[in-house]
Amino acid sequence: MGSISHAITTLPHCHHGPRLSHSNSLLITSKVAYKHKSRVFAALSSNNHSFTPTTDIDLNDPDWKTKFQKDFEARFRLPHLTDIFPHAAPIPSTFCLKMRTPIDGDFPGHYSSDEEWHGYINNNDRVLLKTIHYSSPTSAGAECIDPDCTWVEQWVHRAGPREKIYFRPEEVKAAIVTCGGLCPGLNDVIRQIVITLEIYGVKKIVGIPFGYRGFSDKELTEVPLSRKVVQNIHLSGGSLLGVSRGGPGVGDIVDSLEERGINMLFVLGGNGTHAGANAIHNECRKKQLKVSVIGVPKTIDNDILLMDKTFGFDTAVEEAQRAINSAYIEAHSAYHGIGIVKLMGRSSGFIAMQATLSSGQVDICLIPELLFNLHGPHGVLSHLKYLLQTKGSAVVCVAEGAGQDLLQKTNITDASGNIVFGDIGVYIQQETKKYFKEIGVHADVKYIDPTYMIRAVRANASDGILCTVLGQNAVHGAFAGYSGITVGLCNTHYAYFPIPEVISHPRLVDPNSRMWHRCLTSTGQPDFI
Ligand SMILES: Nc1ncnc2c1ncn2[C@@H]1O[C@H](COP(=O)(O)OP(=O)(O)O)[C@@H](O)[C@H]1O
Ligand SMILES: O=P(O)(O)OC[C@H]1O[C@](O)(COP(=O)(O)O)[C@@H](O)[C@@H]1O
Ligand SMILES: [Mg+2]
């Protein structure tokens, strides 16, 4: 068998290479089994745009590249309503910025659109998923398919308005639902979806309150939405519609969609929500319902695959600066001061890494992707002692999912089935105090947990733009007849992805990436193992 697992033999070890933490185990089981474990991680963690082929590729086959690309094209093909309704006939788009039709409530048999308008996206337009041609698997962050790092173009579908649409606006009832935890920008996305739907001519737009739960809880009623209702909602954080974890099963949700006559569903949420959205899409197909289900990835943790970043992440990093700066001021102003800041990041340390990079005030950054010791000669505490001796103060930034192996397992899950973690921030604070007392060195330890404060703020300017474009593209995707897709930023362009491709596992910080290396350069921290 000449599969990739046999193809790559030797890859050099990095002397200071990071030890992989528990969270990588699911990646190593992948079919693309490189021999060097940290390379497996580098190849599959999708720090940016890597992906795992569904089939083993025989690299001895002279046609492997063509086969690989065919496989890729098939995997990234967007599910379309015509898959189940082959005779569904499209109509010219009602989205035309030149004509802005229809204006009033009545819809004649046809819609006037400007034939000369060239503002549409062709269904064959594509965006390049990977933009670096690595010349060696040893290049930092390399994502290679074969040992020669052969250049293989991988294209995904460009997002945007299509010239032909598969829904008549007067027949649409659109619903928006926001699930999971809060994230800056939810209101911006809701607002933009509503505004864009109205431009297409949709009149029936509703919000489902409190996540998927709103589909089954009889006490909760639909929220009518219009441009007027959403006009200023982006000026505050949170979600106009409310959020929740857990809720009804897919069958009940689809029954509810049928009862309510909803045929466009916009689902804003993270990995779990998207798994739900994909299941809803599949159930609608099974029941032969003409429903378009479109996701918009919402995760402050930035843990969705294949995308440059998700909305709310930038805002979180920016807001985290305030906490880090306070920790720094406290630590710097005290004799032997130590400031500890805990940031969100269940399995991915992106917020902690980027906040560390941007603040320039952090000495130790701890993320879920990398194991660390607190105690012992190479542990965090001994480095803190060194920092107090040499700098006089220190700042630690820790992601909530880091160091969970050091804590007692809670075995508790939330309503969505996510494991409830032990508090690593509090643990580090306590252990730090204990350690310095034991060694008889004065240390003034201050702990800051700004997590929920960060999550509740409104989106900053850059996220505001991201939300706007994602919201618009979600609506374009639905009218284009796609379903079971989500929208994301890909190498500064906007693309549609089949949902399963972006949620097969959480996107993680790649310890071999340049970004993590830059973070280490910035903090000057050693390996804590
Ligand atoms: N595998 C799954 N299949 C279907 N629905 C899911 C799945 N995982 C989570 N959900 C539902 O998605 C919603 C949000 O999930 P959660 O994990 O809390 O947040 P997020 O979407 O941000 O990851 C919850 O209502 C939950 O019941
Ligand atoms: O207290 P809650 O609502 O469970 O939220 C905590 C979780 O929310 C997050 O910010 C994001 O999680 P989701 O993407 O699942 O919403 C995690 O970082 C954190 O673990
Ligand atoms: Mg989640």
Automatic annotation (TrEMBL):
<dbReference type="GO" id="GO:0006002">
    <property type="term" value="P:fructose 6-phosphate metabolic process"/>
</dbReference>
<keyword id="KW-0418">Kinase</keyword>
<dbReference type="GO" id="GO:0005524">
    <property type="term" value="F:ATP binding"/>
</dbReference>
<keyword id="KW-0547">Nucleotide-binding</keyword>
<dbReference type="InterPro" id="IPR035966">
    <property type="entry name" value="PKF_sf"/>
</dbReference>
<feature type="binding site">
    <location>
        <position position="400"/>
    </location>
    <ligand>
        <name>substrate</name>
    </ligand>
</feature>
<feature type="active site" description="Proton acceptor">
    <location>
        <position position="301"/>
    </location>
</feature>
<dbReference type="InterPro" id="IPR012004">
    <property type="entry name" value="PyroP-dep_PFK_TP0108"/>
</dbReference>
<feature type="binding site">
    <location>
        <begin position="245"/>
        <end position="246"/>
    </location>
    <ligand>
        <name>ATP</name>
    </ligand>
</feature>
<feature type="binding site">
    <location>
        <begin position="270"/>
        <end position="273"/>
    </location>
    <ligand>
        <name>ATP</name>
    </ligand>
</feature>
<dbReference type="InterPro" id="IPR050929">
    <property type="entry name" value="PFKA"/>
</dbReference>
<comment type="similarity">
    <text>Belongs to the phosphofructokinase type A (PFKA) family. PPi-dependent PFK group II subfamily. Atypical ATP-dependent clade 'X' sub-subfamily.</text>
</comment>
<dbReference type="GO" id="GO:0005737">
    <property type="term" value="C:cytoplasm"/>
</dbReference>
<comment type="pathway">
    <text>Carbohydrate degradation; glycolysis; D-glyceraldehyde 3-phosphate and glycerone phosphate from D-glucose: step 3/4.</text>
</comment>
<protein>
    <recommendedName>
        <fullName>ATP-dependent 6-phosphofructokinase</fullName>
        <ecNumber>2.7.1.11</ecNumber>
    </recommendedName>
</protein>
<dbReference type="InterPro" id="IPR000023">
    <property type="entry name" value="Phosphofructokinase_dom"/>
</dbReference>
<keyword id="KW-0067">ATP-binding</keyword>
<comment type="function">
    <text>Catalyzes the phosphorylation of D-fructose 6-phosphate to fructose 1,6-bisphosphate by ATP, the first committing step of glycolysis.</text>
</comment>
<dbReference type="Pfam" id="PF00365">
    <property type="entry name" value="PFK"/>
</dbReference>
<keyword id="KW-0460">Magnesium</keyword>
<dbReference type="InterPro" id="IPR022953">
    <property type="entry name" value="ATP_PFK"/>
</dbReference>
<feature type="binding site">
    <location>
        <begin position="344"/>
        <end position="346"/>
    </location>
    <ligand>
        <name>substrate</name>
    </ligand>
</feature>
<keyword id="KW-0963">Cytoplasm</keyword>
<feature type="binding site">
    <location>
        <position position="181"/>
    </location>
    <ligand>
        <name>ATP</name>
    </ligand>
</feature>
<feature type="binding site">
    <location>
        <position position="271"/>
    </location>
    <ligand>
        <name>Mg(2+)</name>
    </ligand>
</feature>
<keyword id="KW-0324">Glycolysis</keyword>
<keyword id="KW-0021">Allosteric enzyme</keyword>
<feature type="binding site">
    <location>
        <begin position="299"/>
        <end position="301"/>
    </location>
    <ligand>
        <name>substrate</name>
    </ligand>
</feature>
<dbReference type="GO" id="GO:0003872">
    <property type="term" value="F:6-phosphofructokinase activity"/>
</dbReference>
<feature type="domain" description="Phosphofructokinase">
    <location>
        <begin position="174"/>
        <end position="476"/>
    </location>
</feature>
<feature type="site" description="Important for substrate specificity; cannot use PPi as phosphoryl donor">
    <location>
        <position position="272"/>
    </location>
</feature>
<feature type="binding site">
    <location>
        <begin position="452"/>
        <end position="455"/>
    </location>
    <ligand>
        <name>substrate</name>
    </ligand>
</feature>
<keyword id="KW-0479">Metal-binding</keyword>
<dbReference type="GO" id="GO:0046872">
    <property type="term" value="F:metal ion binding"/>
</dbReference>
<keyword id="KW-0808">Transferase</keyword>
<comment type="subunit">
    <text>Homotetramer.</text>
</comment>
